[in-house]
Amino acid sequence: MSRSEHTASSAGGHGGHGVHHEAVEALAGRIVEGTYGEGDSLVLPEVMAQLDVTQTVLREAVKVLTMKGLLDADKERGTFVRPRADWNLLDPDVLRWKLAAGVSSDFFADVLELRRSIEPAAAALAAERRTDEDLAALDTALGAMATTDTEPALRIRADASFHTAMLVASNNRFYAQMHRVIVPVIVQRDRAVLAADGVFEHPHAAHAAVVEAVRSRDVDGAYMAMLELLDLSAREHP
Q: Which residues form the HTH gntR-type domain (predicted)?
């Protein structure tokens, strides 16, 4: 997968601007926060009034959220909220709404299990397939990370760039897409830790070990270095 393909595929979630976009965001927020609970039927005239939108705008918002798995409809109940277990957490918008509403520690644990099954394998593929462009992106992220001793917020951004670049460097189109799930959760977790106590052990060395294995085309070394990085992250941010 080329980097240009990746950039194109990363273009926005449900898209749109203005009143339609705002209606989707507002209705999704009410669902994810629990204002409308699982199984609740939406009284559409009331929702129209609450959101201060027209019937056409609300209909489009309902259509978007139905496609994303938050809503469904049948003849008996009309439009209703689907069970949370049915929501498409692999959808970037759904994940963003979920993170904004707040998540529990077991949510982060589930994502860590997902990362352990994906990122070491992606690093191994990167060691085999990486291009000079891939290495440049990884080096740029490492360089940014190395200069963030006193600015944890910038370190979070560099960390996000690193993991995105590593997934792209696998040159597997499916792994490359997983940055949409993995990176927002990394950012949310690190921000939560920063807000709680501001304590971060500098991560540059552990990330650099992964990059050096990729640079050397050491497939097994890249796999193990990424696994060690994830284990370190789990210990520091349980």
A: 17-84
> Residue 168 CB: number of other CB atoms within 10 A?
29
Measure Cα distances from 182 to 57, 88, 189, 225 in Å.
Answer: 32, 14, 11, 18
Provide the residue-wise pLDDT of the chain in tens; the chain has 238 residues. Answer: 545 445 444 434 454 468 999 999 999 999 999 999 999 999 999 999 999 999 999 999 999 999 999 999 999 999 999 999 999 999 999 999 999 998 888 898 999 999 999 999 999 999 999 999 999 999 999 999 888 766 778 888 999 999 999 999 999 999 999 999 999 999 998 887 776 665 556 678 999 999 999 999 999 999 999 999 999 878 766 5
- Rounded CA separation 99/174 (Å): 23
> Distances from the Cα of 96 to the Cαs of 38, 92, 160, 199, in angstroms?
19, 6, 15, 25
SS3 label, residue 25: helix
